[in-house]
Amino acid sequence: MNTRVNIAGVELKNPVMTASGTFGSGEEYSEFMDLGCLGAVVTKGVANVPWPGNPVPRIAETYGGMLNAIGLQNPGIDVFVRRDIPFLRQFDTKIIVNVCGRTTEDYVEVVERLADQPADLLEINISCPNVKEGGIAFGQDPKAVEAITREVKRHARQPVIMKLSPNVTDITVMAKAAEAGGADALSLINTLTGMKIDIHRRTFALANKTGGLSGPAIKPVAVRMVYQAAQAVRIPIIGMGGIQNGEDAVEFLLAGATAVSVGTASFHNPMAAAETVRGIEDYMRTYGIEDVNQLIGAVR
After folding, report:
1. What would the DSSP string read from start to end of 119-155?
2. Hey, which residues are catalytic here?
3. Which of 33, 137, 257, 288 lies deepest, with the highest CB count within 10 Å?
4. Taking all residues of the chain, what is their mean pLDDT, rounded to a whole number?
């Protein structure tokens, strides 16, 4: 039984990885599971300088998921290179570094710093607000998507995955823009913008007022967008959004994803990603699937 998949020339032992921002760099989770069982570990977003993140409270539980407004808190690229990459190198898994920034120059600086590092792929988080364009997210303007993709590709040594925001009218427009800019792969979806109000305190549940909705509640939207994007572009797609187990993962593969990321589920079940690997294998045995690639995009 073959579970290997290929993303932009990088072979993963299986199609399961972690979702950025939900797994740190894996150190805490390594107490519960062997990170080497995963196809890849996707790190928390890293910027050119440390980011303090948003004020608290910045997490709120919702029906079928959670809202977060962490604000991409991270220690910056220097600490990341010194501490996190050496830790991940201990495990037989691929390393995907998530990159964030407030300007195109920020992204480029991080990508250049990673050029000689043992990272296998770069995932570029373009849901960040573009400070030079009045705060609109890079990923909400197709021209900005294409431009930042092209600029990052000019400086990147590793293959580039563009992580798309679902907070757009037509995901296929953004997918095509990233492909036109030279993206090697796409990942989607990032969180949906949501809000929760505490009716007893009569105030917002999050200090930021709005936050990113993740978890099972967004899975049908995510599957739909992955399917649409897979029909629109020819580059591989990493699907995510509400995956809790192998059956959820297979749904994304059938929709056209080459790999999947497990995110919010890890907060209530630290073994969720490892169990998803086994769940895909169980599905393949049940239905006599010899090669996981037979599942990719099988539903049209």
Report:
1. -SEEEEETTSB-GGGTT-BGGG-HHHHHHHHHHHHHH
2. 128
3. 257
4. 96
* HSE value, Cβ hemisphere, 13 Å, CA-based, for 77: 20
Q: How many CB atoms lie within 10 A of CB 254?
A: 17
Pick from 179, 176, 156: nearest CA to 97: 156
Q: How many Cβ atoms sit within 10 Å of the Cβ of residue 155?
A: 15
Per-residue pLDDT tens over the stretch 149-184 = 999 999 999 999 999 999 999 999 999 999 999 999
The structural architecture, per CATH, of the domain 5-53+69-193+212-294 is Alpha-Beta Barrel (3.20)
Q: Is the pLDDT of residue 129 over 80?
A: no
Residue labelled with tokens 């990885």: 17
Model pTM?
0.97
Give 224's contacts (C-beta < 8 A, 6+ positions apart). none
Q: Give the pair of three-digit tokens for residue 246.
A: 């192998």
